[in-house]
User: Fold these one by one.
Assistant:
Number 1:
Amino acid sequence: MLEVVIIGSGNVAQHLIQAFNKSNTVKVVQAFSRKRELLFPFLDSSLVINQYNQLITADLYIIAVSDTSIKEVAQKLNIQNKLVVHTSGSSDLSVITPHNRRGVFYPLQTFSLSRNVNFTEIPICIEAENNNDYQLLEQVGFTISDNVKRIDSQQRKSLHVAAVFVCNFVNHMYVVGQEICNENNVDFKLLQPLIQETASKILELSPSEAQTGPAKRNDTTTIASHLRFLTKKNQSLLYKTVTQSIIDYGKKL
Ligand SMILES: NC(=O)c1ccc[n+]([C@@H]2O[C@H](COP(=O)([O-])OP(=O)(O)OC[C@H]3O[C@@H](n4cnc5c(N)ncnc54)[C@H](OP(=O)(O)O)[C@@H]3O)[C@@H](O)[C@H]2O)c1
């Protein structure tokens, strides 16, 4: 049995613990949290610590804390020459102090506490400084996911930037779309089948093939009428910027 310690009790830590709890080959033997009680639904309270000097020996230590705190937390771990990884898409491997063996275990998904996820479908991007550690991370990854990939720091950064576009920005568009519906007294739910089909069709078509709308058609009359309709500055700015990007992209093809 591979023994894992999880540091953190946020979105990723909670989802990872729940995924490992289903495994027969990887066991979470301890977790660290400044708010221990957050992990009591998933782990026996005796396994949850809030003092670094209580850390026990394990095969792997996964730091799943906010990006800005990874370095500080890694420095506080009073362990030597152990395999320590973080779960961040944007942080370099070097944020982990070199008195331990370093790696990355980045699950490429958006996690929220209130949503269950199917870990088997989530790509896990791994990186390690030596081959033995890489193999251990691969083994741990495959116990919870069918999709484990070797991704170096540069590739991971590009995936993370792309993820901001395809997830965070797209979600912000939902926020703006809902705001426009609310302002005009129409039910945002009417757009749900459209939202679902937009996401589904790029499983079969390339994103450029799937692109539709006034900007794609360079329909200047509709674009001008939409811009007259939008009264909020942030809405018209977004509309203009994305419209221009779609038009410019079309010219390149
Ligand atoms: N959320 C996602 O969708 C997602 C997806 C893939 C990867 N990631 C990566 O996974 C990591 C964790 O993200 P998350 O979404 O789980 O974050 P989160 O929900 O905001 O939780 C952050 C955790 O970090 C702990 N923490 C922050 N500063 C700390 C410190 N100085 N000492 C000890 N603990 C500290 C927090 O503890 P307190 O509650 O005590 O403050 C909390 O448990 C990040 O590197 C993130 O980039 C996130």
Number 2:
Amino acid sequence: MPVVGINRHRIVTDGTGVTTLVASHGCPLDCKYCINKEYLKPEMLVACEYMSAEQLYNKLKIDDLYFVATNGGVAFGGGESLLYADFIKEFREICGKRWRIVVETSLNISCENLYKVIPVVDEYSIDIKDINPEIYEAYTGKGNARVIDNLKILIKEKGPENIYIRIPSIKNYNTDRDMAYSVKFLKEMGYSNIETFSYIIK
Ligand code: SF4
């Protein structure tokens, strides 16, 4: 997996306990206010460190005691972490059940990839942008049909616990009313951990 960065000793920001954030390269979306745009350019691939799941485990295990003592572990972010579903699955096989695995995702990935990680991921942090397909496409350049399909799969397979959905206020793209509609839509699907926030636009 092409690793853009590793950030150790994060507390509470990525779920419970002490966490190490592992950011991978690549994302299917082109969000207008993406703060990682520079890192995600194809030419930045040369600056990535290509790691196997075992190499990553060997690098992260220095914090094993912290992870186990605090119910923490590893957060896979990006880019889009679930482009690397096989990697995350293999990483779980290597690290065992002692570490908590969190994924940060837009869920705009194939359902095959989602099904691969469902048995191994403890917690999801999902930025759904906006549930309205027109707003979504205007902001990301892609449709959100896969996001909605994957939300249906996730609630069916996992239930609402340990799934945290974030709905941003996106200046010039959605309104408070649009956000309220997204919240309602998700609640009707059965989700309960829903947070609204504002993007920081530079
Ligand atoms: S999903 Fe995240 S990483 Fe991908 S383009 Fe949008 S803001 Fe950037």
